[in-house]
Amino acid sequence: MLEISKDDILKSLNRDNPWWAETYKSPKDAFTQKRAYFKPFFERALDWSVLRSTILMGPRRVGKTVMLRQLIDQAMQDGFDGSCILFVSVDTPLYSGMPLERLLALFEEQTDHDPTARRIVIFDEIQYLKDWEVHLKVLTDQHPNTRFIASGSAAAALKLKSQESGAGRFSDFFLPPLTFAEFLAFRNLEDELIDIGQAGATIRYVTNDIDRLNEEFINYLNFGGYPEAVLNESIQADVQRYLGRDIIDKVLLRDLPSLYGIQDIQELNRLFTTIAYHTGNEISLDGLAQSSGVAKNTITKYLDYLEAAFLIVRVRRVDDTGKTFQRMRNFKVYLTNPSTRSALFAPISDGDEPMGAMAETALFSQWFHSDLMSNIHYARWKKGRSDLEVDLVRVDPARLKPTWAYEIKWSDRYADDQPGELRGLIELAKRNADVSLPVGATTKTITRETVIDSITIRHFPCALHCYQIGKNVAEGRAP
Question: 20 to 30 A from 307, CA-CA: which of 42, 106, 172, 314?
Answer without folding.
Answer: 42
